[in-house]
Amino acid sequence: MTALAEPQSGAYQPHGIIPHPRAPFPAPAAAIGWRPPAEQHRAQEAADAETLVRQNLEWALFERAHALSARHASAAWGRRFNRPLVPYALAALFRERSADGSSMVVTAATRLWLAGPEPSDPVDLLAALVDLARNRDQRQPWDVRTALANRHDVPDQAVYTGLAFSSLDTHSGTFAQACEGARSELQIPGTILYLAGDPSMPGGQRALVADRRGADGHNALTISSHEALSTPVILSRWPYTRVALSLLYERSGYGRVLRVMTELDREIHAADERRRKGF
């Protein structure tokens, strides 16, 4: 017997005792998932960096939607007497990671409509785009950047992310009424909608509705968001209110528009995934 009372090869073993092979005792680190502090710190830094990228993307999407509203107001004001535009505009927003991987770049494919002799309803305009997308040839790539939009700055590898909608008819009056009292496009207010399908979110969507005042309203922004903005409110670039998705549909006055945007968003997601895969 050794000092550890372990039988040696060929040594006498008491009757009835079956020797068991010795197994190494698991290291405490492996047993509880422990990692060195330096490794934990690097993992936390990486997670924080990705959170920042996501939050910056959310604000970049909103800023592009805000720019759509402002440019739409400028274009509609400038053309109000010559080939006027309807007071609605749409943008399909895309994202692509920057070359250094530290941020997301947002681009857009935008659609403006010329005013016609018949009244233009935003639901009818969007529903026509839904029909166009649904009736696409499934055997061919279908490019939303050219099929639905008047212009775009979207690279081939960018990923479709969501829809932005601009309305120059607001709760304070129509675009025509705003023009009567305005001295420039800077005084034209607008409403901004953003919607994106997201199965991980309650209700399956990220959405926001924002009221943009003109210069005579101090360019104020009132933003109501359902999961479209996740930055802590105290650190946000603009103040916003977290609201339930049902409230955006029921009390914003844009429930019908959001519903048809939901259908269009779903069709664009499917079509753009096929485009990027090359079929």
Please characterize this protein's 3D structure.
This protein has 279 residues and is α+β, with helices and mostly antiparallel strands. The chain has helices at residues 28-32, 37-78, 122-134, 144-147, 175-181, 245-251, 255-277; strands at residues 85-97, 104-114, 151-152, 159-167, 190-197, 205-212, 221-226, 240-242. An eight-stranded mixed sheet has the order 3-2-1-4-5-6-7-8, with helices on both faces. The chain is globular, with a radius of gyration of 29 Å. The chain starts with 27 loop residues before the first helix and ends with a helix. Mean pLDDT is 87; it is low at 1-12.
| Structural category | alpha+beta
Distance between the termini: 74 Å
The gross shape turns out to be: globular
| Elements, N to C (H/E) | HHEEHHEEHEEEEHH
Secondary structure tally: strands: 8
Count of helical regions = 7
Give the strand content.
15-25%
Task: Write down the overall mean pLDDT.
Answer: 87
Q: Unreliable segments (pLDDT under 50, ≥5 consecutive)?
A: 1-12
Determine the fraction of residues in helical runs and give it as a percent range: 25-40%
Largest sheet: 8 strands, mixed
Rg, alpha carbons: 29 Å
Query: What's the arrangement of strands in the largest beta sheet?
Result: 3-2-1-4-5-6-7-8
